[in-house]
């Protein structure tokens, strides 16, 4: 049986975690995998999460099974943060808890694979390297459309629209709700309007990956395009992650919402989500979602979470602005948003920076801006200066 299997390369991004750990140089800088870091370079458990976990330890009476939908109250309390309170109550919208944003993407992909018309999933170039494998492993055809042009460091919107014009009715378009990973580049308001018009006219289904809400422009601003999309189209899918904005990475906390054309179809969608979740993971892990529920059920804890998230967001935005000021060739970073930026560096340059300076970033030149510190920016800019291609 296993004789047919071939060796597989390790995930390039996750491999960086181990490489960085093994590097003994004290001045090493980790700009690899997307986790928030404070100015001491740490990723602490958020204060509100700690408080919620203490509360859970004291009061949780059972760990008996829930169900494939996970913690329903968690989903109910999270929905207004994502969609606003009016839209969250839309009977055409149904949501379940998932193991992280990846679980949400996979569950959504499996649902798409059960849908009508063998849709193709359209994915921008570049995107998070795990997007295409998630859809392909669910048996779906994946096609790329241009998004960010590394040669100019800007979004090639005309090429994106021209490619999506080739999509057939019912195809699915994967969109980053905010904080584009890996580029940080953002469509303008006018471009979003044009894109929504195209999706509506050609009856394409948006599949929004919203993994960084609150880490770009703010909780509401980061959800604005997701809300506008849901307003405009009859069917949509939203994969959500709490891993970054609640700092719950390894606890794997996410949710999937699907909007169907009417509430009868929503019931069928939900039935299918539950059947799929049951066969994929039976039910999602409880702990992280229960901690989020504790926070969102308590006004004081919720306010504390929002304050800390805002501290994180402002720190990232400040570093982004500092970086843009320190190196004129990176000025465009100031107009982008979120944790990531894709620097114009060749793969060879990325490897040289790793070997010569202990600077760890993704092979694509993507950096996690939160890995920088005020005191390391000048050294970082000096190290990359000779390698920048624009
Ligand atoms: C990232 O892009 O660094 C994060 O989303 C972590 C991951 O799972 O790849």
Automatic annotation (TrEMBL):
Cofactor(s), names only, from the UniProt record: pyridoxal 5'-phosphate
Any Pfam family hit: Aminotran_1_2
GO biological process terms on file: L-phenylalanine biosynthetic process from chorismate via phenylpyruvate
Keyword Transferase part of the UniProt annotation: yes
Gene Ontology MF terms in the entry: identical protein binding; L-aspartate:2-oxoglutarate aminotransferase activity; L-tyrosine-2-oxoglutarate transaminase activity; pyridoxal phosphate binding
SUPFAM superfamilies: PLP-dependent transferases
Transferase listed as a keyword: yes
UniProt keywords, alphabetically: Aminotransferase, Pyridoxal phosphate, Transferase
InterPro entries per the UniProt record, alphabetical: Aminotransferase_I/II_large (IPR004839), Asp_trans (IPR000796), PyrdxlP-dep_Trfase (IPR015424), PyrdxlP-dep_Trfase_major (IPR015421), PyrdxlP-dep_Trfase_small (IPR015422)
Sequence ranges assigned to domain Aminotransferase class I/classII large in this UniProt record: 27-384
A cellular component annotation (GO) from this entry: cytosol
Homology family: Belongs to the class-I pyridoxal-phosphate-dependent aminotransferase family.
NCBIfam families in UniProt: PRK09257.1 (NF006719)
Subunit comment: Homodimer.
Protein name: Aromatic amino acid aminotransferase
């Amino acid at each position: 049986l296993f004789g047919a299997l071939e060796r597989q390369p390790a995930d390039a991004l996750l491999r960086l975690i181990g490489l960085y750990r093994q590097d003994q140089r004290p001045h090493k800088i980790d700009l690899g995998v997307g986790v928030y870091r404070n100015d001491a370079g740490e990723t602490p458990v958020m204060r509100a999460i700690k408080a919620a976990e203490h509360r859970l330890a004291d009061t949780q009476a059972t760990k008996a099974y829930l169900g494939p939908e996970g913690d329903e109250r968690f989903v109910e309390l999270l929905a207004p943060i994502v969609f606003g309170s009016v839209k969250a109550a839309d009977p055409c919208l149904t949501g379940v808890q998932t193991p992280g944003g990846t679980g949400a993407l996979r569950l959504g992909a499996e649902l798409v694979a059960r849908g009508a018309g063998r849709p193709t999933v359209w994915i921008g170039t570049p995107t998070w390297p795990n997007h295409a494998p998630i859809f392909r492993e669910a048996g779906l055809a994946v096609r790329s459309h241009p998004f960010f042009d590394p040669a100019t460091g800007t979004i090639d919107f005309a090429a994106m629209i021209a490619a999506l014009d080739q999509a057939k009715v019912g195809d699915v378009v994967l969109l980053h709700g905010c904080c584009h990973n890996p580029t940080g580049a953002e469509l303008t308001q006018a471009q979003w309007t044009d894109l929504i018009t195209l999706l509506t006219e050609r009856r394409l289904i948006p599949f929004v990956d919203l993994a960084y809400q609150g880490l770009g422009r703010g909780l509401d601003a980061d959800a604005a395009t997701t809300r506008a999309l849901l307003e405009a189209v009859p069917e949509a899918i939203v994969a959500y992650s709490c891993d970054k904005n609640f700092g719950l990475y390894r606890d794997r906390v996410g949710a999937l919402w699907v909007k169907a054309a009417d509430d009868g179809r929503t019931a069928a969608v939900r039935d299918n989500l539950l059947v799929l979740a049951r066969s994929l993971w039976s039910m999602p892990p409880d702990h992280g979602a229960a901690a989020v529920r504790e926070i969102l059920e308590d006004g004081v804890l919720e306010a504390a979470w929002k304050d800390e998230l805002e501290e994180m967001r402002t720190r990232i935005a400040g570093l982004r602005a500092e970086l843009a000021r320190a190196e004129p060739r990176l000025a465009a970073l100031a107009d982008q948003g979120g944790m990531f930026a894709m620097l114009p560096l060749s793969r060879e340059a990325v490897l040289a920076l790793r070997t010569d300076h202990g600077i760890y970033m993704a092979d694509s030149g993507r950096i996690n801006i939160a890995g920088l510190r005020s005191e390391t920016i000048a050294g970082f800019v000096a190290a990359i200066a000779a390698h920048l291609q624009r």
